User: Fold these one by one.
Assistant:
Number 1:
Amino acid sequence: AQTVTQSQPEMSVQEAETVTLSCTYDTSESDYYLFWYKQPPSRQMILVIRQEAYKQQNATENRFSVNFQKAAKSFSLKISDSQLGDAAMYFCAYRSWGSGTYKYIFGTGTRLKVLA
Amino acid sequence: DVKVTQSSRYLVKRTGEKVFLECVQDMDHENMFWYRQDPGLGLRLIYFSYDVKMKEKGDIPEGYSVSREKKERFSLILESASTNQTSMYLCASSSYVEAFFGQGTRLTVV
């Protein structure tokens, strides 16, 4: 069975600085998706970024980028130029490849605090 | 715009009551999910459904059941609510790749 581990329950970053959130996962599959979701105090989960395992290039979305190390089964999220609105819970998630029956497996989350 | 709607944001129920949590999506997605979110435990999958009337148990199905009579609606049922089911419940539906979430229902069982 697949597992996702986030070892940092809480992180802090100064506004305008850069922070990296860690995620490791375990799977025997070769094709899959990885995601970072953000949950602000409003509780609405929002997709931040996704990565297809077959792609060697790391995904980037504006100030958000990932460092995907497939052999090490590591998927970290880097937030550049941190803003107060980035304060939230961040969840790393895994999903098997393909359509049909699948499920999303989440880590325990990292609470990010942004200091003014 | 994509939308997953949960019927209540906050709910307070008594021990032993039968509780229905409703979730509706407007995206014609095949797959729908119910998760439970607790501090330090992340999101844990209760049940998921990949088609109308089709369902599969997730990691923590005990004490819960689900119903999916129509494609757009996925209901979570607590047959006899207990205090250890006090939690945040999140519904999601999925396109081919990403999951879209509702705003969550914070359930308190007293």
Note: Chain B touches chain A through 24 residues (CB under 8 Å).
Number 2:
Amino acid sequence: DIQMTQSPSSLSASVGDRVTITCRASQTFSRSLNWYHHIPGKAPKLLIYAASTLQNGVSSRFSGSGSGPDFNLTISSLQPEDFATYFCQQTYSSPWTFGQGTKVEFK
Amino acid sequence: QVQVRESGPGLVKPSETLSLTCTVSVSGASMRSYYWTWVRQPPGKGLEWIGYIYYDGSSDYNPSLKSRVTMSVDTSRNQFFLSLTSVTAADTAVYYCASQSWSGVQRIYYFDYWGQGALVTVSS
């Protein structure tokens, strides 16, 4: 199975901050990488697929970059609704696997 | 637009079978437009993909659970189902259902619409 390692596991930030989360895959693949946003008790939400394609309806303050094994999710200006946990996911090779999550907390 | 909602017993006894239903609402399309997938998250742990099923019954399961998992779909009722046999406390988790799309251009699967999840506790 492909292991996905996110860093940091948590971070503290303020509204308006620029935030970058990294996801590293244990095997190299091109762009089969997705990012999700999750608030406990709510449905996870797809932000980015194929490493850098913004899902319909998602704010342009979110962007994805990179190519295997290293990928980044950047939030250009953190908003109150962005305080959540973010997961990366590879769908290059079954079984699909997720990173352990990065919790973005209010500073 | 797709909406999905998980339902099923919140408590299952060890060694018994966990059964969940995902009810789907698809605007302007049908269940045949998507794959349908299950993911779980044990307390304090990360997400684990369980498997997916297509409207024609084709499926792919995570090898770690394959011997105990069965998925099925009923397009006439807009529902798909998860069955996990011989459960133990390690199967206690929030179970999510989601739609899974394929981008032919990008050649990638992604999970575009998720439910809020259903907590299933395995305990006697």
Note: The CA atoms of residues 47 and 58 of chain A lie 6 Å apart.
Number 3:
Amino acid sequence: AQTVTQSQPEMSVQEAETVTLSCTYDTSESDYYLFWYKQPPSRQMILVIRQEAYKQQNATENRFSVNFQKAAKSFSLKISDSQLGDAAMYFCAYGSGANSKLTFGKGITLSVRP
Amino acid sequence: DADVTQTPRNRITKTGKRIMLECSQTKGHDRMYWYRQDPGLGLRLIYYSFDVKDINKGEISDGYSVSRQAQAKFSLSLESAIPNQTALYFCATSAPDRVYGYTFGSGTRLTVV
């Protein structure tokens, strides 16, 4: 079974600085997708960024980018120019090509210091 | 209106009671899911359905049942609620094109006392 590991339960970053959230996964599949979801205090789950495993280029969405290391099975999220509104819980998720079920990591709580 | 609507938003119930959490979606997707979120455990899959006639257990289905009343509706029931079922419950839907991930509802916070 696929597993997703987020080993850091909490992180903190100074406003305007850059922070990287780590995620590793375990799979024997070759066709899969990786996601980062944000959960602010409103508890809504918001898709931040996605990466298709067959694409070598790292995905970017404005201040959010990923470092996708397929051989190492690592998928970290970098947040640049951190803002107070980035404070939330972040979940890494994996979905294989065989079906669309997502497996989630345990999440990391990010706080942003003004 | 939200793409995925969950009701109720919050609920407190007593041990032993039967409770139903409802989910409806306007995305037109066939695939729907129920997850529960617990602190330190992330989201875990309870049940999923790939079409109206297809219901599958997830990793933590014991104590739960589901009903797929229509393409747009997928309900989760706790037959006899117990305190360790206190959690945040999410319904989600996805298109067959998996690259877009899930669209989530806003969650139901259930407390069993």
Note: The radius of gyration of chain B is 13 Å.
